[in-house]
Design a protein that fits this description.
It contains seven helices and 21 strands. It has helices spanning about 15-25, 100-120, 150-155, 250-265, 275, 280-305, 315-330, and strands at about 1-5, 10-15, 30, 40-45, 60, 65-70, 75, 85, 90-95, 125, 130-135, 135-140, 160-165, 170-175, 180, 185, 200-205, 210-215, 230-240, 245-250, 305-310. A hairpin with a 2-residue loop joins strand 1 and strand 2.
Length: about 325
Amino acid sequence: MFLSIYGLNIECIVESKELVFKLIRPFLYFTQNNVTCAIKIIVKEDDIPYHIFPTIPASFSSPRNIVYTTADIKIIDYFGGGVVIHDIHKSIYTLYSRDQDFLMESFYLLVLSLFGQYCDTNNMIRIHALGLSYKDTAFLMPIPPGGGKSTMAFNILKDKEIKLISDDEPIYANTGKLLPFPLRIGTLNKEMLHNIPEKYVYSIDRIEFGKKYFIDCSYWDDQIEHRYLKKSVLFFTQRVLNGQSSICPTPKYPVFKSLLRDAVVGIGLYQGIEFLFSHSNLEVFQKSRIAIKRLRLALQLTQSSQTFKLTLSNDIQENTKTLRQFIKNYPTK
């Protein structure tokens, strides 16, 4: 199977047809029949071959894994639950585990990490936001954790005229256009799945955070935005206690400040620190250059967008109604 994500081409080799579907399903929008690939991911539903590993001291650790690295190879050990082996010179990643949930999660996060690095070298930024479109306008809402982003997306897409750009991370390119990035919509609330056919729903018991349910974006197939949109509306979101939801115009500075968190630093976006950690001064310098690139793109997006303040109440249904009415009444010219 091949993935082609805005120029990032990945060949995926999996022994089981059942497993390859589970791994690829979040990225179905980006599957291709055959492309030339610089990166290869091999997934093996097998025991971890610790006996073939060289003796390497640990160079990095986190609550989820320990990383061992040399000039030629990087081994990421998830405390016996599975490993990711990176052949640095050949750009080959091999995943080992008997646990399909681990393989699904680690494959997903690896692809996101690789795409994040690709964006940084190809003048694109990921934005931690809900991205919707109506007619020719993109609407980006960086909603804080716990703000009901997925529930709002699920409810607002009941309006068949509104389309989905991305539930979690729309892409902005230096061409001034927002690119679709529809992967899946996740929820911890099983009640959201009540009326959705089973073929669109799956779950993963995640490494750190437990079980979560996911809805394939193909469920909204006729509402996926395929165009690259130049006209955009950016929101600065703020939660209030015992208040009402509302939307009003706002200066660009608070919106840009929000993008510093949601796109430049990328809080809420998976960064793949186990693949990015560094020690040398040169690598630190290179990362500072990446931050400057992201900063410029965030500033460009802010300057070219209309900006509004979205006040969120404790009532997700009220928030959804307010947002839907604003989008449907927004001037199209």
